[in-house]
Amino acid sequence: MLATVFTKAILDRWRGMAIGAASLAALLLFAMAVYRQIDLSIYTDLPEAFLTLVGIPEDADVASLAYNAIYNSYGSLAMGGLVIAMGAAAIAGEERKGTMAMLLGNPVSRTHVLVSKAAAMLLLVALGGLVLWAAGVAAPELLEVSVTGIHIGAFTVHLVGSTLFYGLLALAIGSWTGRSGMAAGTTAGVMVLSFFAVGIFPLVEGWEDLAKAFPWYYYSGSEPLLNGIHWGHLAALAAGSIVLFLIALLGVNRRDLRGPSTGVTLMDRLRTSPLTAGIANRLAGSARVSRIWVKTASEYQGLLFVVAALMFGVMGVLIGPIYNAIGEAVISLGEGFPEAMLALFGGGDLSTPEGYYQLESFGLMAPVAVMVVTITIGARALAGEEENRTMSLLLANPIPRSRVVVEKTLTMVLYALTVGFATFAGVTVGSWIGGLGMDVGNIAATSVLAVLIGLVFGALAMLLSAATGVVRFAIFVPVGAALIFHVMNAIGELNDAAWADWSPFHYYLGSDPLTNGMPWGHGALLAALVVLLLALAVPAFQRRDLRQVS
Amino acid sequence: MTDQFAIRAEGLTKHYGALHALVDLNLDVRLGEVFGFLGPNGAGKTTTIRTLMDEIRPTAGQASILGMDSHVKSVEIRRHIGYLPDDLALYPNLTGRDTLTYFANLRGGVDWGYVDRLAERLGADLSKKVGDLSSGNRQKVGVIQAFMNHPQVLIMDEPSAGLDPLVQREFQAMMREVAAEGRSVFLSSHILSEVQRVADRVGIIRQGRLIALESVSSLRSKATRQVELEFGSPVDRAVFEGVPGIRGVTVEDRRALLSYDGKMEALLKAVTERYDVVDITTQEADLEEIFLTYYRDDQATV
């Protein structure tokens, strides 16, 4: 099976795709089972503007609601994430690991490597799409739900096309620059931004056409689930994909390969210039390595900066004026909203700015933002140093293992607080600019809760990292747990089921803190959960053998 | 530090499921000596060292360093040791100096004048990012890191990897200096000549078992050399008969190839009486041959 570059790429990557597609299929089944039990008449009375905003087709039925809830948002973002990782790792990732030189030491051309990896990506995405399609067809049959006017096949074709586009974008950036981090980061940014752009622009009068500038539009703009395949949009995605592939081909063939080296950062340049050497040396050198937690912090400052800036700017400041711009339409939706129904999208009463902020910023984005930071640090802090084999040198110093856990945890908590503060500041400024008059104390309370819910899963990552030393495990399990708990909470509240209380997310927005202020009991519960998980991480790390990774 | 031993292992055993990585290992390293820990790849050298460093915990038995239990007193022990792990990995984004500063901060108190002298001796560039260094130059940073604290015990796992011969010699001199000051070096290696050059005593490990504990001189006496002789005229193999220590003679016209573990004088005397010796090439026995020697001994005693 390792015979060709193509089969090796498949072998390296099929697990992620299999787990992702299978989880989405399971979630679809779960969602459909729950929707089947609730009265759907509430949906049919909803105004069109709102339905567009949350992506529910007008003549919603059980199946289409479930498809929308699971496939349209989680599904496309998850598939996108998987394929972006694949695209970024294909060329740039191998260079970073230093394995590219060995691969190309064999009589294969760079073009051959690129084509093989792109073909592997194509096959895996197609197989993932096939699983989603099969689950989409099978779920209503299994649950005896009637499906009318739904084009699940067309939808998965669009999904596969759109997913490939992002994968090839990552591949092109990686092939051109040899930087896997840049390829993954930029592409993920483009994907998330266009996801939101396509959600928001059509609602703003005069800006409707702006959405067409974003690739997501060609995925969901024509609502393929309801209207079938839109050949024009698919052709646009295919053309874009082909162009990106050609760019990748050109890029990988024209430049010098990078060794497994580090690259030159702005700080490095400042350190070499005599004018700035003094201060830059202190910042990048002696200060950065003064403590374990400071050094850990310096490793993730780029990630923190991007996430905090996104939360402050886009999810905070920008939402205020946008609410003002589309507020009329939203408010006119009236009081008829079944509050529980919004739970899936983060809840919130749309007729108030608090509700809108909850839907746009706090419902999904704020916990995701905090989790990106906490799970990354939690998983990589201990297990990452083990996998990079630096842990044995770190622990050759006269410090107990518990101190390593504590200091790395400190970084995680500080960074979570920073994201929380950026969110708080952004929303406060956004509310002020938009003249929405939201209560600053309540914004602060909700931000604190977002930090806590993010830390719950970050602490879980830290615990798994401490107990196993395997980064992949410490990332996938908390991400999966967060996804399941989120859906469980959302659907449970929709259904007024008592088991929603078992999801940590219930203690995040369950009491509507943006309107009602700090639920101290809920906050304390989340904090206790964080402390418990972290307290377990210390003995877990102390007791086991360090891994030997070669 | 009441014990007279730098390192002592008693019945050290480590199992990974069915794999017995280390079986009932007993050894001690004295103060003021360089102890060579010799064995082929995968023999259990790194497992022993990782146990000493409390990275992994023994299935049975125990080890102590400077009289302190390697697990219970692990933090205190690490104040007094310098460690260079196998297949060294450092933080690629830090320069050599940043790296040393980081560990110096964690240790508290490092003599930077000494660090600079070490860097000069080894020809290490501490201003470059570690990720941009070649593996040999990266190894130098690791060596400085292990020495910079004036440790009582140096534990080094395959330390010469990637160092060029000149630097290796300097590094070996540094190890001898450590021993001369009454401190100890635990040197793991699979290169016989390196261990012979610096070590006072040698422990030989094979398949997780210590199969010999010897002084270097007695190890050398067991080391059978390959000798190739070239003569001025065709040679008769009878000339080698009766010389003690000669084995496996092959004669080919004017050349003879043999294994020999006695004094060179005796061999030369025997052949120069009758023949004109044009050239002699001797080759040190390689590690595998020595292992075979010990292995045979091992089997014989069973």
Number of helices of chain A: 25
Order of helices and strands of chain A: HHHHHHHHHHHHHHHHHHHHHHHHH
CATH uppermost class of the largest domain in chain B: Alpha Beta
**What is the first-to-last residue Cα distance of chain B?**
38 Å
The number of domains of chain B? 2
The biggest sheet of chain B amounts to: 6 strands, mixed
Q: Span from first to last CA of chain A?
A: 22 Å
The proportion of strand residues of chain A reads under 5%
**Can you count the beta strands of chain B?**
14
Please state roughly what percent of the residues of chain B sit in beta strands, choosing from under 5%, 5-15%, 15-25%, 25-35%, 35-45% or over 45%: 25-35%
Mean pLDDT of chain B: 88
Radius of gyration of chain B (CA) equals 23 Å
Helix content of chain B: 25-40%
Describe it.
The complex is a heterodimer of chains A (550) and B (302). With 550 residues, chain A is mainly alpha-helical. Chain A has helices at residues 5-36, 41-44, 48-54, 62-97, 100-103, 110-143, 152-177, 180-200, 217-220, 224-227, 231-254, 266-272, 277-286, 292-299, 301-317, 319-331, 353-362, 365-387, 391-394, 401-433, 440-468, 471-494, 506-509, 513-516, 520-543. Chain A has two domains: 1-256, no CATH class; 292-543, no CATH class. In chain A, 48% of the residues are buried. Chain B is α/β, with parallel strands linked by helices and 302 residues long. Chain B is 34% helix and 30% strand. In chain B, the strands form three sheets. Chain B has a six-stranded mixed sheet with strand order 6-7-8-3-9-10, sandwiched between helices. A four-stranded antiparallel sheet of chain B has the order 2-1-4-5. In chain B, β7, α6 and β8 form a beta-alpha-beta unit. In chain B, α3 packs parallel to α5 (135-147). Chain B is globular. The mean pLDDT of chain B is 88. The A-B interface holds A 260-262, 268, 284-286, 288-292, 295, 299, 388-390, 392-400, 545-546, 548, 550 and B 46, 50, 53-57, 74-76, 78-79, 81-83, 85, 87-95, 97-99, 101-103, 105-107, 129, 131-132, 142, 145.
